[in-house]
Amino acid sequence: FGKIGKGEDTPGLAVYDPGFLNTASTRSAVTFIDGDKGILEYRGYPIEQLAENSTFLEVAYLLIHGELPTQEQHEKWVHEITFHTFVHENLKSQLQGFRYDAHPMGMLLSSVGALSTFYPEARNIHDPKVRHDQVVRLIAKMPTLGAWSFRHAQGKPYVYPDNDLSYTENFLSMLFKMSEQKYNPDPRLAKALEVLFILHADHEQNCSTNAVRAVGSSQVDPYSAVSSGVAALYGPLHGGANEAVLKMLKRIGTPDKIPAFIEGVKKGDEKLMGFGHRVYKNFDPRATIIKKAVDDVFEVTGVNPLLEIAQELERIALEDEYFISRKLYPNVDFYSGLIYEALKFPPEMFTVLFAIPRTAGWLAQWLELVDDKEQKIARPKQIYTGDRQLEFVPAAKRW
Ligand code: ACO
Q1: Matching Pfam families, A to Z (predicted)?
Q2: What is the mean pLDDT of the chain?
Q3: How far apart are CA 165 and CA 163, in angstroms?
Q4: Minimal CA–CA distance to 225: which of 106, 113, 121, 115?
């Protein structure tokens, strides 16, 4: 607790909780996490079952609507998403105006924000039909914007969506198609991406979701709210850990260097990136699922020498008292960067690959916010630490 304001005439006491470590900012029925038991559920369904048996678009429907679709609802949903994948040509011109080396996350966040100007009706957030249309547009267009940001950095022409393909196949086509011929991605790669998208679709009140809710609480349109989520994800403390894992593995270089590296970690020289989690203290359920996807991807792309280092590092750490006593286990980022590299993504794209599926979670949480009659504009209190009631002396007399 802290006193609000300095001096005698202060309005009272407030809870001081930087980063909301112990303060619930909202009530939510979207995602459940039990960090001690390693449980992650979307709308009550365990992540393991969804990753094994569902598709990203079905999971997106579940997050958004709160229940699984009937066959008819599913067909309509997939049809709607598929036929909103194109973006306005003027938005393409906007993307083309970026520097050749523009970071794809910077391009993504500004183009998502720019979408609001193409759909001015989106400001009418109290109309359920309007809300639905923007949700569909955002989920549909994120892969297009993400893929075009990637092609831009490579100096390659943008590839238009291929609506005969599934959500992840189409994304791979827009990323990697090199000729006029139809691009047919390896189904094992499309499936691995599908699993990664499901794992990243939501994670309750993380930094970017909190940003979407805070900005959304001003009743702004969903494009502007989601662009604030992309901005939050851009930060290295949120979306950047898998890139750090990759750099660490490259630095270690060969398996024989692992014991010395582990000793350095134990001495406190550095952290073992991709290990440990603020919420999951026994295991990260997403890490277990991702390990299966690793095998599928490397079957197609051939084994990467970094995988051998990662596996050996994990084996040694899991048997070491330092990591056991501190409950440090691999998190989702330990293997995701390896998969992305095997798929030939440059590290700057890793966070884009996070933002695309997380859009479904952001929107589910945004819809919940808009429907919540008790929701107030996000406006936390502060504990004021500055001066009070100073006498202002004009510049002419001060200098
Ligand atoms: N390597 C070595 N030691 C570690 C690691 C690690 N990766 N993580 C925690 N520790 C140690 C700490 O030094 C501390 O040791 P001490 O008790 O001797 O001081 C102890 O374990 C407890 O750690 P905390 O920092 O209290 O744990 P916290 O919950 O605050 O941190 C975090 C969690 C930030 C994820 C941390 O484990 C970490 O930095 N991991 C590496 C980065 C990483 O992989 N981030 C991705 C997280 S997943 C995601 O964002 C999608």
Answers
A1: Citrate_synt
A2: 93
A3: 5
A4: 113
Per-residue pLDDT tens digits for 281-320 = 888 999 989 988 888 898 888 888 899 999 999 999 999 9
ipTM of the complex: 0.93
Distance 277 CA to ligand 1 centre (A): 6
Q: Atom 8 (ligand 1): residue with closest C-alpha?
A: 276
Is residue 175 within 8 A of residue 145, CB to CB? The reply is no
Ligand 1 pocket, CB under 6 A:
241, 265, 271-278, 326, 328, 331-333
Q: 318-359 pLDDT, tens per residue?
A: 999 999 999 999 998 899 988 998 888 888 899 999 999 999
Q: Catalytic one among 277, 284, 296, 371? A: 277
The answer to whether the CB of 361 falls within 8 A of the CB of 201 is: yes
Residue with the smallest CA separation from ligand 1 atom 41 is 273
Q: What kind and span of H or E run contains 339?
A: helix 333-342
d(CA 316, CA 243) in angstroms, rounded, equals 21
101 is catalytic: no
Dist. CA 245–CA 227, nearest whole Å: 26
Dump the DSSP string for 213-253. Answer: HHHHTTT--HHHHHHHHHHHHHSHHHH-HHHHHHHHHHHH-
Q: How far is the CA of 215 from the centre of ligand 1 (A)?
A: 29
Catalytic site residue 333?
yes
The β-bridge relationship of strands 2-4 and 45-46 is unpaired
Decide if 238 is catalytic: yes
Q: Rounded CA gap, 340 and 232, in Å?
A: 21
Of 65, 74, 132, 238, the active-site residue reads 238
Tell me: the pLDDT tens digits for 7-38?
566 666 788 998 888 899 999 999 999 999 99
CA of 225 to the centre of ligand 1 (A): 30
124 Cα–ligand 1 center, Å: 43
